[in-house]
Amino acid sequence: MLRTVQAKFLGVAAFFVVWLVVATGFSVIQSLGINGDLEAVSRYITPVKDALSDIRSRQLEQISLIDRYMRVVENEGSQASLLGGIEIEIDAKQTQIEQAFRKAFTSAALGRAQASSHFEQGGLLNLDVRMREFADVAAQFNLGVERLLGRVGEGDLDDARRQENLVRGIHRNIVLDLRSEILLLEKYASEMVENVSSREDFLIQAEFIMMLAAVVIGISFAYYLSQAVVKAVSDTTNALNSVQSGKLDTNLDFKGKGDFSRLADAFNRMTRELRVRFRMRERFGKYVDPKVINNLLSQETALETSQKRVMTVSVVNLTNFDWMAEHISPEKLVDFLNDYLTAMTEPIANHSGIIDNFLGDRVIGFWGPPFCGEKGHAQQASLAALEQVARFNALKTKYADLIGDHGLDIRIGVATGEVVVGSIGTDKSRAYTVVGDCVNYANRLEKANRIYGTQILASHETANMATGEIEMRDLDHVVLLGTEHEVYLYEVLAPSGQLSDDRRDWRKTYETAIALYRQGEFDQARPLFEEVQNGIGNDFAAQLMLNRMERLSRREQDREWDGTWIVRDPYERRDVES
Predict the structure, then answer these.
(1) Is the whole model's pTM more than 0.70, yes or no?
(2) 307-498 architecture in CATH?
(3) For the chain, which residues make up each domain, given as ranges?
(4) Omega of the bond leading into 527 within 30 degrees of 0 (cis)
(5) How confident is the model at residue 305 (pLDDT cuts 50, 70, 90)?
(6) The two domains 20-212 and 307-498 share their CATH topology (first three levels equal)
(7) What gap in Å lies between CA 39 and CA 190, rounded to an integer?
(8) Residue 414 backbone dihedrals phi, psi, to 5 degrees
(9) Is CATH 1.10.10 correct for 20-212?
(10) Which tens digits make up the pLDDT trace of 520-529?
(11) Is 43 buried (19+), middle (13-18) or exposed (0-12) by CB count in 10 A?
(12) CA nearest neighbour of 353 among 410, 312, 323, 394
């Protein structure tokens, strides 16, 4: 009996295979013909038509430019300043026309070689030759245009007008011939599409009939396979329902090494990943920035460990906020704070940064892998700081009546260095944050803005990493309050290439002066600092250096001068105002 069943199974299977081979062969033959026709239209005929349409459009644009050119000549003479720009545009259009002709000729030549059944009969016969003829006529048109421009350049306007008439005649012939050729190609393509559509309808009907026969044969196989498949599907469905109900520890176990065993392995891997992702989302649901979750979901151990990385930290502080809190109604204060925090946090997110936390009106952000590149985080932090200043300036305009002249402004410190980054906190409340000297350094830089009258101060490491991308000013070498080592301070000015010539000269003068100042050449540095001070704006840094040199001349620092100032007073900006 077993052999009889096997013989029937093999007989039905053999018949089914033969049927499939015949049906597939028929479909392939028909599809190859249809695809060949469609390929001829899409790869050769349509590109030629599109190229000719592009040529026609460019010809019309070029003749329009010639009209404009001649109007300028008539109105302003052959030496008008506008003529040079129009001539460049005419040459550019000619270049585009020549490129389109090359594309049309190439497509037509390829079509003749690859789809000869279409390109060697009817309207497409010798299409590549006609493309070459079109290009020759266009070359005559271009030669006429060159002569026209040459006559204008020589001041021979009468001959230029005659040449203009010749050019217009050639242009009319080109446009009419192109239009006829385009219509011919459109007609051929339309007829081809209709023919393909008819053949597709026939193929669909034939395939439907063959499909019905295959269904009838396939049903016979379903009986023999139903028992094993139904059991496997039932087990898989029950497992999926368990996962859907929240039982993420569900597993599938199919014996053997077949397809169902591989399905079980894939299902079990899925449930393991779901458990990890659920645990991460449960913990990271407390975090502010969604990029933290998205970047760490693929790292199962990232929740439990911290890492040392080189990152860039930014600290933004709002000055004179205490005055607002005392003198402005709570409703208006909340509106202002909402707009302020939006203006400070959106630039961080826009430049691939992470919003660390808020301390009153202070906003802290950080940049670094895996949220942005190893080498680009200093640049992104600097760009974010510049955008924060721009947005706050707009905010001051919006709230001008509310702020008045009470000196409300922001100060930003940007520092790059090694930090510890990871998940820090208790079991009930955790934060993905950074800690380390770099964070403290950014805080000190933010406060140091008060000394120099600046808005954005960056560390030496930030300036080195952002070299070539951000315009900065070498501001000072100091030992900041609370530290014992020398630091180099840089003022962030603008994105690379966006500093005006006046500002570049202003920066160069300052940096020349500061170099002399560090060498102790005070007499040479003083007039340069005065030039900076009297130049663009009222530069507090230049005035500070002038006051320092005066104090150094009186030997108010208790050591030999080595170019580094020791900041002893956190409010040392009084030196500028004194």
Answers:
(1) no
(2) 2-Layer Sandwich (3.30)
(3) 20-212, 246-287, 307-498, 500-572
(4) no
(5) low
(6) no
(7) 14
(8) -125, 120
(9) no
(10) 899 999 999 9
(11) middle
(12) 312
